[in-house]
Amino acid sequence: MASLPKEPPESTKKQSFWMPGNYVRTVQRTDQSFQACNDIVACFMERAKVEKQYAQQLSQWSSKWKSIVDSRPLYGSLMRAWQCFFTSTERLSALHSSISQSLVTEEGERVKTWQKETFPKKIFCGFKESHENNTNFSQAQKPWSKKLMKLEKVRVAYHKSCQREQATLDKEKQANENSEMSEEKKLKIAGAREKATEEKEKTRERYEKVLEDVTSYTPRYMEEMEAIFEQSQEEERKRISFLKQAFLSIHRHLDVTNNESVKAVYSELHHTLMSISEQDDLKWWKNNHGPGMPTDWPKIKEWVPPVKKLKRKKRDQKGKESRPVMIGGVKVRAVYDYVGEEGDELSFKAGEVFLKVEEEDDQGWCRGVLSNDKEGFYPANYVEVAE
Questions:
Q1: N- to C-terminal Cα distance for the chain?
Q2: How far is residue 213's CA from residue 220's CA, in Å, rounded to a whole number?
Q3: Of 7, 27, 211, 273, which is the most exposed, with the fewest CB atoms less than 10 Å away?
Q4: What angle do CA 230, 232, 236 make, to 5 degrees?
Q5: Do 375 and 329 meet the contact criterion of CB atoms below 8 Å apart?
Q6: The whole model's pTM is what?
Q7: DSSP character for 107?
């Protein structure tokens, strides 16, 4: 019963029904439906007054309510049906005073009575349906949310351990290249590197274990959440069905069939009302605010080492000096994906083999040639020597 929302600028996966707290849109739908009933009653009570004043006041009524309806919480075929009333009103010149009386005494009271019976309030908690839906969704989602938080913690710990290991690897590499460093100090650095690697493997095992726990719990979580959602859908279906009948009843009062032009107007209106589809509207809601939304389920996110920005002025100055060039080049294999940010940088996928034709500079970059003969720079820590 909420209005068609604009597409959110942020990722729809983060807005998914399954993510923590996002069920609130479905919970709020009950309150929005209640407000929609108030608007419908107000709308047609005012229409009844307008009927007495014929063409000019009908035009004013239509213009006013067109702008109001655009911001109201209806959606889909039900929304289009409501808007059709105003389109037909603009084409009418006059209606009988008996129509005005019928709108007030029959349809207005009918909607108010139904609204009172359909939306029982719970003291201090708003509508009973909203309170129950919120409680049930919260209880069903709580265990999964805790597991998700735990997963995020171990993911952060795993990525930090990857960073620590990389730092020790870099330190060990520098030590091995330093001929003046004592063997004892080199052994100590190597031991630190081994310890960091061991710690990384342990944190990854914990990461995988927690992810397995989240993944194994997900089917149960989905089943419980969807069961609560379907209950809410059933209540919404009843509301759409009632308002469809209310609109059709209002239509019967307004359908002045002794005038061919008026008859044509209401024939068109009737066709629009009959197009109201609970199935289509509920399906739209499910795909945009419910289980049908795309979701980015948790999975392992590998750590990727940072890349130092290539300072081209500095490199160009050094380019005037001679740098060692490898005759024939050395085959290297990409360990990570990389997308070049500048025209003189290479782009490659993990596992791709190409030639290194120039040694690493003091900025951490090498020059290489891809299999398609494209030559350019790439970060040295993104490749390893191919066996």
A1: 63
A2: 12
A3: 7
A4: 110
A5: no
A6: 0.58
A7: I
**Structural tokens at position 274:** 């009959």
3-state secondary structure of 281: helix
- Output the six-digit token pair for 127: 């509508």
Averages of pLDDT over runs of 10 residues in the chain (387 residues) are: 52 81 92 91 84 73 82 80 80 65 85 88 80 94 95 95 93 88 89 94 96 95 96 94 92 75 80 88 88 88 81 60 68 93 92 93 91 93 89
- Quote the pLDDT of residue 11: 61
In angstroms, the CA 283 to CA 107 distance is 29
Helix 24-51 × helix 183-254 angle, to 10°? 20
CA distance 204 to 321: 45
Torsion of CA 90, 92, 94, 97, to 10 degrees: -80
Nearest to 332 by CA among 351, 319, 315, 314: 351
pLDDT recorded at residue 8:
53
SS3 165: helix
